[in-house]
Amino acid sequence: MVRPGAVRVSAGRPRSRTASARRRPAQKAQPAAVAGRGWRAGRELPHRDPRARPSARLPKEEPCRRTVFTEEHEQFRQMVRAYLEKECVPHTAEWFAAGVVSREAWRKAGELGLLAWEVPEEYGGLGIKDFRYSVVIAEEIAATGTQGITLGLHNDVVAPYLIDLTTPGQRRRWLPGFVSGELLVAIAMSEPGAGSDLRRITTTARRDGDDYILNGTKTFISNGILADLVIVVARTEPEAGHRGMSLLVVEEGFAGFERGRKLDKIGHRAQDTAELFFNDVRVPAGNLLGEPGKGFYHLMRNLPQERLGIAVVAIAQAERAFGVTKEYARDRHAFGRPIGAFQVNRFALAEMKTKLDVARVYIDRCVQAAVDGELTAEEAAEAKCAQVVELPLVAVSKGVPKLDKILVVSLIPATVSRRVPACVAPC
Ligand SMILES: Cc1cc2nc3c(=O)[nH]c(=O)nc-3n(C[C@H](O)[C@H](O)[C@H](O)COP(=O)(O)OP(=O)(O)OC[C@H]3O[C@@H](n4cnc5c(N)ncnc54)[C@H](O)[C@@H]3O)c2cc1C
User: What is the pTM of this model?
Assistant: First the structure.
């Protein structure tokens, strides 16, 4: 297995620290890579005027200076990009249509060490705790236009539960497959009547001898169709309010566990999101995660990093939207000039770029704080609230070619849905 921090890849030379910023979709630096992307592959932008005057060019854009990554992260970035371009991007249209990604893509991610590197070495992981590797993945998913594969959910949301709350026996059973990509996971909190306010969940788990009897319905569950393990939030002490919730791991094949319809969403279309039903499911008490009755507190403990993860994804998608917009502004001509050469549009582009760079600096500061173990809940909430979540919407409405359905729906709802979760939603 390849270490995230010590990767050597054949695809291209190691890049400098600022190289990531130079490789945004709008840049000419990597035309071959841009042309190969799913959302741009083989497409010519409409209305290009071949008689346009070459002198009407947009000014050269300087990348935002970043100091958060080391050379190892940039090498890891190369490998992630090579993986996404080979194993995911070519399947975009297929996954988009099916509403679910292939297990093969997960297995390949596992082979390359892109899954759960925080897991201790004795269970197949690398024992590396460094949120910057997750940031690299989120940025490359956005930059390549990859759809559907929920690496962030696996690595950043679920991994802390399976690493920190498990017994040695549970670790032996679940962690090796979790690292290799053979065991896919989901976390089921939301219900038809409970989303932001988790205290309203009605799913119950009644103790019966060595088992819990689980009953209830969950909805909007990412990976709900593919998951082999589902961490379910249930009431084990109904009278105790949020102090009476527990986390139970339901495994594929448990009698009474059924998957409902794959939800037909506007956005995240290649990612499966499903309803799950639990009818008298007998869950062994050995599948309890953490302490009984402490489920709510377990859900809260990783919240700052989960919130920051949303900000990281949002700004990465915003930068992609900006790149696409800028490319369009350069290629679309009117009155003999690229539309981006008109002053009013240059103002708009400059404003977007400024907001992006300012937000980027703040989010990078939070990333460093997370790496140093100092990220506060307030800082993470501010990062999530940052205006950057608005930017792709602005960019899309002003410039993105409207006919590219996959591109447009991937940008708009990615940001809209990230505004919705209010209190404890990690997705
Ligand atoms: C693509 C996708 C994937 C998801 N994956 C998962 C998953 O894997 N697991 C899972 O458990 N859930 C998942 N969810 C559900 C997600 O966590 C919920 O949508 C989220 O918690 C919000 O809940 P809700 O939709 O019920 O909105 P509601 O709770 O009904 O909120 C509706 C609106 O009211 C606002 N609101 C709520 N409370 C307050 C308040 N106190 N003050 C002010 N405004 C408030 C909200 O911000 C929102 O705008 C997913 C959702 C989506 C869209």
Answer: 0.81
Which domains are delineated in the chain?
71-183 (1.10.540.10), 186-294 (2.40.110.10), 302-423 (1.20.140.10)
Q: pLDDT tens for residues 225-279?
A: 999 999 999 999 988 888 999 999 999 999 999 999 888 887 788 899 999 999 9
Residues 6+ apart with CB under 8 A from 148: 88, 92, 95, 96, 100, 101, 268, 269, 270, 271, 272
Check if 417 has its Cβ closer than 6 Å to any atom of ligand 1: yes
- Condensed to tens digits (0 to 9), the pLDDT of residues 117-145 reads 999 999 999 999 999 999 999 999 999 99
Pocket test for ligand 1, best of 154, 190, 385 (most atoms within 8 A of CB): 190
Token pair 């307030």 in the structure block, residue: 378
Cα–ligand 1 centroid distance for 66 (angstroms): 33
Q: Which atom of ligand 1 is nearest to the CA of 224?
A: 8
Residues whose CB is less than 8 angstroms from the CB of residue 262 and which lie 6 or more positions away in sequence, other chains included: 99, 100, 224, 225, 272, 273, 274
Q: Is 306 a catalytic residue?
A: yes
Taking the CA of residue 426 as reference, the ligand 1 atom at the shortest distance is 17
Query: Which tokens in the block code for residue 359?
Result: 């937000």
Q: Which residues contact 278 (CB under 8 A, 6 or more apart)?
A: 203, 214, 215, 216, 217, 218, 232, 250, 256, 257, 258
Task: Find out whether the beta carbon of 220 lies less than 6 Å from any atom of ligand 1.
Answer: yes
Binding site membership of 18 for ligand 1 (Cβ less than 6 Å): no
Q: Which of 275, 306, 327, 379 is catalytic?
A: 306
Does residue 217's CB lie within 6 angstroms of at least one atom of ligand 1?
no
Q: CA–CA separation, 408 vs 152, rounded Å?
A: 21
Sign of the Cα pseudo-torsion (64, 70, 74, 76, in order): negative
